[in-house]
Amino acid sequence: MTEVRVPLDLWAEDDKTGSIVVWLYPDGATVKEGALIAEILVEKTTLELYAPASGTLKINVEPEVVIDKGQLVATIM
Amino acid sequence: MSRILTMARAGREALDWEMERRDEIFVLGEDVYNFGGIFGTADGFGAKYGPERVINTPISETGFIGMAAGAAMAGMHPVIDLAYIDFIGVCYNVLLNTASKTHYMSAGQVKVPMTLMIGTGGGYNNAAQHSQCLHATVAHIPGVKVVYPSNAYDAKGMMHSALRDPNFVIYLTHKGTAGVGWMGTPLKTTLSEVPEEPYTVPFGKIAITREGSDVTLIGLGMSVHECLKAADELARDGISAQVVDLRSLAPLDRDGLFAAVKKTGRMVVTDEDYLSYGVSGEVIASVVERDPTVLRSAPVRICTPDIPIPFARSMEQAILPLAARIADAARKMVK
Amino acid sequence: MPLTPELRREMYRQMVRSRAFDDAMIALYWVGKTPIFAFANGPLPGELHCSNGAEPVGAGVCAALDADDMITADHRPHHVAIARGVDLNAMTAELLGKKTGLSQGKGGHMHIYDTRVNFASSGIIAEGMGPAAGMALARRLQKRPGVALTFLGDGAANQGAFHEVLNLVGVMKLPFIAVVQDNEWGVSTSKKESTAVARNSDRASAYGLAGEYVDSNDPDDIYLAAERALALARSGGGGTILELRTARLAGHFMGDQQAYIPEQMKQTDPNPVYRAKLIREGVLSEAEAAAIDAAAKAEIAEAVRLAQEAPYPDPSEAYDHVFAETVA
Question: Who is most buried in B3, B34, B142, C173, counting CB within 10 A?
Fold first, then answer.
């Protein structure tokens, strides 16, 4: 199992939070390592989240929920 | 299950694919190089293709869109980002008299293959000069193809079609459907499974977005999604609503429209553009001039009334063609 | 290329061809329009904007061009089209709305297209600015040679498109020349009334372009100025506003009596002036000049005869060419 966390360097400022805009694969989908799996919005900037491993995506955090850098948002089995 | 894309990503994927393979395609517009366009139509293209093929322009639409038409006449295929359709007033002559008429006036000697991407629509409190749809204002011009995808699958397929078309194509996207960051989280019904490989969606064919038998709800751009919401609401009342997505205004699929309306005998036509002299009247005329007897009741239009778009949320929400108004109209009609 | 006797004879020939064409069109234009004038009457219907007096512009600039260069012209295109080598028979037929016309009767006299010689014209004032700049951009992207020129009147120099495009040309350093034909009149409004500066070429400094004014309406001077502008463009030095003092002897359009032009502003016909100059300088003999004049008249007469004999397009053809065919 691989944890999918918001990379610590995805945005610079530590005091800012973001939210998932859209998951680009549904819960339970098979994803490949390196695939773009979600868009994260921080203020007006859209950032990208990539799959750290191949496997089955299990989504933990739905869109429009506040997230921090480093937060666990999904796992890949 | 394959991956899901937003409309913005899907359209961009098609543009990227074509641009990688065809040197004649280049992008120009305000803020396309650093920003990838205000609505992300060319996000990341500046770094990938360089300033020769992703050309930042001054705020000078008459100048650079006229220039695009000339580049098209000389064998290129420019792709222009005009962020807001409210800005067509400052370049309308190029649309009205140059790009649309040169092929005709030259009896086919000169082709003008260019794709003009424009964002439309309101609903996000941007007031009277940044919220208009105006699609009828461009679809009225002969010699222009006007297409209007409302979901990611069509956004990709219609972008491939536009870039392979030897004519002037206006590719409209309602800003609220695009799925770009600063418009909030995208509407679920705009997201689609999108194949990785290229494909085309032909112009001039409606889509039946939802099957139904009691009433036909007809929409385009954002109003398709309001129709879908209305159909959900109507289903709870036991009314089966069919939803039609026009997808293409010019050419308009009059045959497809007629068949769809004939199936239910009732139509509610929705349009976020102004009510008068617009798409809604054209849709109704297309059906009734062929055979008025297919209708069991008078058609109804749910459109933005003929007033400038107000700023305050309380007023704007009241005038937009939203699901509740559409469902009300359908309920009255079916009763 | 230097200003050789051959070149000067050729420029004279083009001026005479253009004048013979316009004179023939004017004669045809009045057929059926007297005593009751109506645009739609006669074999040459619609509006007609003739180039009489501006022939040195077309002849002088086009003599300096290469085959790769591109032109957009305006509602008064004949002198430029003819000097550029647009198919004269097909152009004549187009003015008469015939099937054999350049645009098969869909264009008329303001909309002259001949892709063989990279020529296009259009009827909206300053509309050719953007397309010409775009053609120049296309050639740059295609890594092919070619300078784009747009021909327009001094009345067009107050249009937004003129200024927007000149700024873009300056920013992008495009190989582009705006040929401003200063005939002092925008329809019935004088340059003095409409333009804040005496010379539009002075506006070049606002856009980082070169500006040159030629006040003689003499094709020798025009040719040399065009050569300078073309050399600058070809060397990557960018664009020029080339403003040429010229004449508009036949009014804005047919039917314009030009009563608003005061006596002291009456314009001089450049063609006899140049003819006399070439004879005086020994470039042409009187007999050679007369032969050129006669040949031009005969060529035009034949073009008119062919056009008159040609069929009109079938009404159903109105529906053709709205769109180019989409290849699946």
Answer: B3
